[in-house]
Amino acid sequence: MAKIVVDLHDCFDNGAKIDAALNNAIDEAVSTGTKLVEIIPGKGSGQLKKSVLRFLEQKHIKQQYHRIEKDSKNFGRLFVHFKF
């Protein structure tokens, strides 16, 4: 299964870059019919993961995907599942 991977390690301290990277990944998944986006906020303090989850909870974003899965083996990784 093809997936889109978004590694946020490089832009952890730049909210605009984070939002842009997440928006691009969501848009790409929707336009290409990709069913899985893997987001890697990293482990750190958990603040980046919280901001990613806040981003994904926005109404206009939330209506585009099916569900979020938190990786049980890796705290620093999230999966966003799409239904097409």
Describe what is shown at a glance:
This protein has 84 residues and is α+β, with helices and mostly antiparallel strands. It has a single domain, classed as Ribosomal Protein S8, Chain: A, domain 1 (2-Layer Sandwich), CATH 3.30.1370.110.
Q: How do the strands and helices of this protein lay out in sequence?
A:
Elements (H helix, E strand, L loop, with lengths): L3 E4 L7 H18 L3 E5 L6 H11 L1 H4 L4 E4 L7 E4 L3
Parallel strand pairs: 1-2
Antiparallel strand pairs: 2-4, 3-4
Walk me through what this model shows.
The chain has a single domain (4-81), classed as Ribosomal Protein S8, Chain: A, domain 1 (2-Layer Sandwich). By secondary structure, it is an alpha+beta fold. The mean pLDDT is 93. It has helices spanning 15-32, 47-57, 59-62; strands at 4-7, 36-40, 67-70, 78-81. It has a 4-stranded mixed beta sheet, with helices on one face.
Major β-sheet profile: 4 strands, mixed
Low-confidence stretches: none
Number of helices: 3
> Structural class, from helix and strand content?
alpha+beta
How does CATH name the architecture?
Answer: 2-Layer Sandwich
Strand order of the largest sheet: 1-2-4-3
Q: Into which percentage range does the β-strand content fall?
A: 15-25%
Relevant terms:
3 helices; 4 strands; Ribosomal Protein S8, Chain: A, domain 1; alpha+beta; globular
